[in-house]
Each structure stands twice: as C-alpha cells, then as structure tokens.
Amino acid sequence: MGKRVQGAALRAKKRQKALLEELQEQQAEAVAQQPAADKTNEELFVLDTTGDTVPRQQRPAAKKEKKSKKETVWSDRDKQEMEKLMQRHSKEQLAAMAEKGRKMLDKSNHLKTHGIRKAKAQSSQNA
Fold this sequence. Notes:
It is built from five helices and no strands. It is mostly helical. The radius of gyration is 38 Å and the shape is elongated. The chain starts with 6 loop residues before the first helix and ends with a helix.
C-alpha cells in the first residue's frame, strides 16, 4: 500500500471528482433535452423508395492524381563514388562498365550455387 494522499494533492483530487460529477450531470441533462428523442424513426430518417440512381456516365469523374515518376535519390556516399569513377575512367570505360553491369542484371538466373553447377557439369562430361 502506498502513502495516503494529503494536502494539495488531496484537494486537487477532490476538485477533479467534483468537476467530473458536474460534467456527467450536464451531459445527462443535455441528452434528456434532445428533441430527437421524442420523434419516431420515420420522422428522423428519410428512405429512398424510388430507387433512382445516377448512371455512371453522368456521375462526376473521380479526380485521378498524376503519378510522378520516382526520381532516383542518391546518397552522399553514392555521389562520391560516382565522382571518383568519373575522375578515374574515361567515358568509354564507364560505358563498358555500365553495360557489363546491365548484362549481369539481365541474366535470368541469379542463384548463387558456389560452383556446384560447374562441378556437376564437369563431372557429367567426364563420365
């Protein structure tokens, strides 16, 4: 068990309790005085009995936001690496490196087999 609340904390707790009770009473009175409570459901709600609907062609078109192409955002480290490559290599060398990278990405199978396939192929050819 903790300490018993005393002094300012006790007075604040009593004020909070009194305010809470007063607020609850006010809300109860407001609910009791609502005019909608006396009305029937037919008076409160309007039902569409005709079933008229607007054809899709006449409805306002939904606004479609243009999808912007995502721009590549390079980090500072990537920018530094690119600058180093551009300083060290000529345009032709850079183009060759880029083409080599594209070819690596275009390969259909990216599985890492750690040489197992090569060993199997050699063993089947030797047999």
